[in-house]
Structure formats: structure tokens, C-alpha cells
Structure prediction request, 200 residues.
Amino acid sequence: MGEADDFSVNADNLSLNVDTQSLLTLIAINAGKLEQQSAVNNQYVSEVIANPALPLAQGLWVTDAAVGNQKNALAFSRAVQPFQLNNKAVHGVVTVAYVNDQINDTLARLLDPQVQQVLLNGDSAQIAAALNGKPIPQATTQTTSTASAAPSVAAGSVVGTFTIRNEHGLHARPSAILVNEVKNSPLRLLWKISLAVGHR
Prediction:
């Protein structure tokens, strides 16, 4: 067991079936849960509410703040019914407090389509298991063999590995800018994202 095994998400940080049509309400619920646990302070709460959330995928959004993080923590809230905000679906919000790389494995799981489906459709036990990398009880989604298979590289392709070095990691907003630039590229890109914080 390594250091990364020390962080886990518990069901107390999950708010499901919130009767709202407001992204801000979902964010505020998450920020309140994190503050109750002393994972964040008032500066964090103010910043996470003031700054726009970033769409992740399938109606899931992510929020964080650069200030006021006191310990690693993650809270998730999900609306009873998906709704639209600026022509984008909103169904759930993940709010992250980040102080070190012990949370990285959990953050990486947010990119997994199966975990995203569990966030959208699962109960508290299923969501906690999915975020913690545990077997999902009575899983509501199945991963197909093509979804889990490693992508193949066509003959004549140019393959490169690029590392973005920043001792504080690549936070949500700079990550979104990078993703938007790549999406507009005519090149076919295969991504492997590592959320580990690198130190020189």
C-alpha cells in the first residue's frame, strides 16, 4: 500500500437527488460539506462559488479553488433531474480540495467513462466504490471490451510524449484551455493524462 491509498471518498460527502436547477446550489452544497470537515476555509468557499465550474463530461462538472485548501477532500452533488446551463447539460458537480498527490488516483478516476456513469446513475455506495477504485456493488454500467482496450497506433503515425512541468500541477482552468486548444486541432490525438504532481 502506498501513500495514494491513504485518501478515500466516503458516502457522507455525496449529496444525491438534490431538487435544484442551479449549478451554484450544487457547488454551495459541496463547499459546505468540505468546510464542515475542515478540508477548506472561507477563502476557498468564496473562490469556488465565485469562479465558474468547468464541464467534465456527460453533464458532470468540476470545481476547485487555488486558495484555502487545508486537506485533500472531494464532495459530489447530483441534481434529481439534469438541466441546461448555457446550452450545456448539468447533472452533477465534483468539488475538489487538493493539498498533495494522495488524491491523484481519485481524480484520475473521474476521467473513466464507467466512473462517470456511476456518478450519474449510481447510489452512494456505488459512487464511493467507483471513486475509491473498489469493485462497484450491483454495478449499473458495463464497460465494453472496446472501451477498455488500449488504442492502437496506425502505421506511419507520429507518437510523442509531452510533459507539462508545474510543481503545483495543472489546475482545472489551465487544463480546460489546453483541452480546448487540442480539440480545435486537425490532428488525431490520443491522450494519457497523468494527474501526478511533479517536483523537480
Remarks:
- The CA atoms of residues 99 and 129 lie 22 Å apart.
- Residues 11-132 form a domain with the Mannitol-specific EII; Chain A fold (CATH 3.40.930.10).
